[in-house]
Amino acid sequence: MKAPEACEGIEDVRGAIDGLDREILHLLGRRARYVAAAARFKTDQMAVRAPERQGAMLASRRAWAEEENLDPDFIEELYRNILSHFVGREMDLWRT
């Protein structure tokens, strides 16, 4: 993958973005497997929801966003969606 400044046309840019999106999806798949593993260690629904953990996670993701010059509000919203999905999935796994 070329560095952004080395791209010679829109196809280079689009190809790089597609590759990055594929990597993001691969990482989300890995995250899902860790969520499934975490469900084995939770003792009740409150442990699955872990609101204090979610709050700490969102705060750290906001800080990481700022370090990467990304909009922390956007990243928080993105992670709220990720957490909502994966907590729901973990709850389903925990119940089984």
From TrEMBL:
Q: What is the lineage of its organism?
A: Bacteria, Bacillati, Actinomycetota, Rubrobacteria, Rubrobacterales
GO molecular function terms noted in the UniProt entry: carbon-oxygen lyase activity; chorismate mutase activity
Q: Name one GO biological process term.
A: salicylic acid biosynthetic process
Q: Which InterPro entries does this one have?
A: Chorismate_II_sf (IPR036263), Chorismate_mutase-related (IPR051331), CM_dom_sf (IPR036979), CM_II_prokaryot (IPR002701), Isochorismate_pyruvate-lyase (IPR008241)
Q: What protein does this entry describe?
A: Chorismate mutase domain-containing protein
Q: Does the keyword Isomerase apply?
A: yes
Q: Where does substrate bind?
A: 14, 31, 42, 90
> Where is each Chorismate mutase domain found?
4-94
Say which species the protein is native to. Answer: uncultured Rubrobacteraceae bacterium
Pfam families annotated for this entry?
CM_2
Q: Which NCBIfam families match?
A: PRK07075.1
What keyword terms does UniProt attach to this protein? Isomerase
